[in-house]
Amino acid sequence: MQPFLSIALWTLLATTAGHAGAIEPIKIGVSGPFTGGSNPMGIAMRDGIRLAVQEINDAGGILGRPLKLIERDDEARPERGAQVAQEMISQEKVIAGLGIVNTGVALASQRFYQQAHVPMITSVATGSIITKQFLPPQYPDNYIFRVSAPDSIQAAMIVEEVVLRQRLRKLAIFHDSTNYGQLGREDLERAMEQHNIRPVAVERFNIRDVDMTPQLARARAAGAEAILTYGLGPELAQIANGMVRIGWKVPMVGSWAMAMSNFIDNAGPNAEGARMPQTFIQEGNTPRRKAFLESYRKRFGVERIPVPPAAAQGYDSMLLLASAIRQARSTDGPRLREALESLKERVEGIVMLYDRPFSRTDHEAIDSPKATVIGEIRNRQVVFAYDADRRRDAQSR
Question: Most buried of the four, 130, 152, 220, 396, by CB within 10 Å?
Answer without folding.
Answer: 130
